[in-house]
Amino acid sequence: MRRLTRPALAGGFLILLVLANAVAQTSSTRVRQLAPGVFYWQGDTATRRPANCTWVVFRDYVVVIDANFPWAAKEILPEIRKTTSLPIRFLFNTHYHADHAFGSAQFRAAGATVVCSRECGAESREKGEADWQNQVYGRASRAGATQYDRDVAAETRAQNYGLEHPSLLFEDKVTFDDGTRRLELIRMGPAHSRGDAVAYLPKERILMTGDLCVNWTSGNNVGDRDADHDNWIRALETLAGWEVQTVVPGHGQLGTTATLRGQRAYLKDMLEQVRAGMKAGKSADQVAGEVDLTKHQPFGASPSAGAVRSVYRRLSTAAGR
Ligand SMILES: [Zn+2]
Questions:
Q1: Homologous superfamily of 30-320 in CATH?
Q2: I need a surface site. Which of 144, 169, 194, 247 has the fewest CB within 10 A?
Q3: How many Å lie between the centroid of ligand 1 and the Cα of residue 126?
């Protein structure tokens, strides 16, 4: 056996260092810095942590955007701690849906006040509990439930996870500005839901859209009972005019203004095809079978029949009012 010389030992030490570094990176690969003091945690559908989360470090505190589910919030909080020791003072949820807002209690326990638009707050109180039951326990008891769904329900019971409603509500806009950094929360709904709001960093031109825009192949939830699809299309037109550099969508990969335009084109096409079918006297099932949105990628990659039925139902209800 060859005796290790000093350089060989040093080389081995270097390899160990590289390996240690690689392991450290793996545990934080979901986190990226988008600009100095602006961090992004990429959601993951496979583990039911689907929503993207962003945090912005101000001079004295941190503002987090979108809580995700409780089991994801527990994973995100230590990631935030790795980037700053400042207090997490505010959590802003873009809308009340389970996958964006249900981790709110974990952020509150860490010291944050939960912020959203006034209408989002009202929706959380009106529809949040039913959404919670459905997302956490409903999925676990349905036929085709996965072991993961059952684990989530069991963990929720064991950990006593609960719904936390927002307590700081704004009408149309709220601005955080410490002289160096500026973050604007701006209501855009009714669109994907009644109280949708976006978060915008005008200096860095980074926009957090919530589910007004997604950038993945798993489709978008167009079925909220308070969704307003025409206004949603208008909201995307407005956002596309802001000369945004980076779009953090509600789900999926980072995007650009082109992503906002693509999401808008997908929705507009869906709405036009559904309206044409309704005008021709076709049933929801007929229209669902005919609508083709596959040219809109990645938005139209997943089957659109369920989404089409939701839009058909919503338009029928609106017409019947
Ligand atoms: Zn979502």
A1: Ribonuclease Z/Hydroxyacylglutathione hydrolase-like (3.60.15.10)
A2: 144
A3: 18
